[in-house]
């Protein structure tokens, strides 16, 4: 049972992994300065008007949202399956315990995904307003 839950949660993550790894690259050089000048002076001290991190923040925000939706959908499905198993357990202790534990793990996964999305959005909001 645990192997099925792990596979159900791992499959969407592995399917979305290329989206995270193929995200838009960060800028190596902005404005009229060269990359070597930026390394020596620091990226925050360059004067280029095109130096911003809105595309990087947008990519991170999109990736986190997609992963959170996938994990949330998987958790909801596992919650529904666990509730069904609990209903049809017939009072057998092993089946009831198995259904309860998978229900608890699915709820914990849903809570962790929600908190992770909130945390990432909060950090990106704070980074934009500093």
Structure description:
The protein is mainly alpha-helical. It is built from 4 helices and no strands. It has one domain.
Strand content: under 5%
Summarize the main sheet. Answer: none
Radius of gyration: 22 Å
User: What's the structural domain tally?
Assistant: 1
How large is the count of helical segments? Answer: 4
Shape: elongated
Helix content: over 70%
Mean pLDDT: 75
Q: Uncertain segments of ≥5 residues (pLDDT<50)?
A: none
Order of helices and strands: HHHH
Identify the quaternary structure here.
single chain
The number of strands is 0
Structural class: mainly alpha
Distance between the termini: 47 Å
Tags for this model:
130 residues, mainly alpha, elongated
Summarize the structure.
The chain has 130 residues and is mainly α. The protein has helices spanning 2-21, 35-41, 54-87, 93-128.
Q: Layout of helices and strands, plus pairs?
A:
Layout: H1 2-21, H2 35-41, H3 54-87, H4 93-128
Helix pairs in contact: 1-3, 3-4
């Amino acid at each position: 049972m645990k192997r099925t839950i792990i596979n159900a949660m791992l499959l969407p993550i592995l399917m979305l992994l290329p989206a995270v790894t193929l995200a838009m690259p960060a800028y190596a050089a902005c404005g009229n300065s060269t990359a070597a000048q930026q390394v020596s002076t620091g990226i925050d001290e360059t004067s280029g008007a095109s130096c911003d991190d809105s595309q990087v923040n947008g990519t991170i925000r999109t990736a986190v949202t997609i992963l959170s939706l996938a994990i949330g959908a998987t958790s909801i499905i596992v919650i529904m399956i666990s509730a069904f198993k609990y209903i049809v357990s017939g009072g057998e202790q092993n089946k009831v315990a198995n259904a309860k534990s998978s229900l608890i793990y699915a709820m914990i996964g849903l809570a962790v995904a929600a908190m992770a999305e909130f945390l990432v959005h909060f950090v990106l909001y704070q980074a934009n307003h500093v």
